[in-house]
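Work package 3, deliverable 3.1, input record:
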Amino acid sequence: MLEIKNLKVRIGDTEILRGLSLSVKAGEVHAIMGPNGSGKSTLAQVVAGHEDYVVTAGDVTYMGNNLLELDPEIRAREGIFLGFQYPVEIAGVNNAYLLKAAVNAKRLHQGLGEIDAFEFLKVAREKMATLGMDPKFLNRGVNEGFSGGEKKRNEVLQMAMLEPRLAILDETDSGLDIDALKAVAQGVNALRSPERAIVLVTHYQRLLDYIEPDHVHVLSEGRIVRSGDKSLAHELEEKGYDWLREVANA
Amino acid sequence: MKQQNLAINELREAVLRMPADRLSATRTAAIASLKQNGLPTLRHEDWKYTDLRPAIEISNQWLAAGANNTASDTVADAIATITSSLDANWLLITNGVIDTSHFDRGASIEIARFSDTSAPPLADKPLADLNAALLNDGLKIHVHAATEKPLGLLIIDAADTGASVSQVNIEIKIAAGCDAELIEYQASLGTQDSYCNSIISMQVEESAHVSYVRIQDRRIGHTQTARQSISMGAASDLNMASYDLGGGLIRNDLDIDLNAPHANVVFNGLYLAGDGQHIDNHSRVDHRVGPASSSQEYRGILNGRCRCVWNGKAIVHKGADGTDANQSNHNLLLSDHAEIDAKPELEIYADEVKCSHGTTVGQLDETSLFYLRTRGLDRRQAKQILTHAFAADLVGRTPIDMTRDTITALVGARLAVLIQEELL
């Protein structure tokens, strides 16, 4: 589904990704771990299409097409979803309005009509219930005055409504208490399916106790330095990240 | 740059052609004042960002052409559209001529023309002399009791068959203890030049509560100078919201006098400006007695080549202890050619006061734009959503509920055009 080959990315004068390769197939859950500054969030932003990041080398193909040529909104409509590490607060924009606009943008792209208003509310309320969200959040400003946990649940709600083919969740576990973490994990697990791929970007192993990955990759200084199964996450938890620098520099 | 002066001789001739009535003496005094003082220029501190020469030029051309306003039939359609969208008790002033045919006389409101009673003395304010000299007639309105419908003032100018210059003068008294709702709607149409100079003075008596909505939706390119002078009695409240959506050169002056304790005024404003527009909102609040509070928030969305001015002055006079004055102004600049001159001014001569002010000028947040795009919305949709959000808060603060839908629709329509402008 997603093929990244020898990707090099810079922002300003700083090279952040230095030849990263990654292959994600439908049905898989990948975890990308690594210390702060290793390039995890950059990878997530580049796949979503952030224009501040300049790709200087390498290829990214998604469903067989060159992803780098597409605007962020087209990527979204083609099924890529980025769950933000810091979801943006947009005062004055109703949460339901944004959700519906997002769902409709995708539906129109697929040649479907706009979603029925009644149907939309019904589905949104169901998904909110499974995430433990109060339906009142539909009528509040997008992330406006939400707690850290509420923002992350809202990201997962958007994902659940948009039913992406490829979901990238950037530090979705950061700042969550255990209940929120479980609710978020449950929301993500509910989306696991043979047609869908999920990439979890995380600093800690904790999230992986609740969402079991098929593959774990360790990112260091802009490259994947090790890949393995879920046991690699436990190894990292025990050893920390310091030993990686030696591997990366070797 | 050559200073343009008002053509006093032509003005005097135009005044001589007006019927002799109870306004005549003030007209004569006004001509003398105009001859002596002229109109404000950029050298006046309060007018340094707003050049009145377009207004003078239009006035001179109009005077030279015989000082006639001719409203065409299309104005009736415009009036019908506005009065049917807002269910108010409407008083019309069409090209400076009072029209009470839409007004429902009831026990709660008394109205009288200056020509049937008396003209107010010439005010010592800029443009008051121009107003008095050419004023066709003015209105005195006395609101005695709460009314079923808001009182509507529709000030409309048609400039389709020829240029139009009009003067409006309305005096309003809100009786003690009365709840009053007031909608002022200024609009214009036609492709010829148009200039309207209005004065609305309002006396809010003790314990009266006033909700006041101002909508300015003049044709892009048309000129307006408008002064509101409001005097607040003890324990009276004013909740006001202004929406400037159209016009070319627009200057609003809002003067509020807090003369007695426990008066509260809230006035908020939204201005949307695009190519060729100049929208200037000046306000001055005089806190003469405390405790009393005043609070204002103005927001602007600017695109294309335009300029807006926000100048909020609060003067806390000696002895006005217990004053609470807040002012803020926030601007969204969508183009490199848009300019905002924002100037908060606080003058405090009392000891125990709470005063604050804040001004921000910014662009649309790129992170928010990206966030919306990752949700499948294109750049234009994302911009539209974010600009709407910036305006929505102020739309929501209209003090008269029944105006909300109309304001939402007008703001939405104007923003849709403004955002397109940038794409050209």
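The interface with chain B takes residues 48-51, 71-73, 75-77, 81-82, 84, 87-88, 90-93, 97-98, 101-102, 105-106, 109, 141, 158, 162 of chain A (CB under 8 Å).
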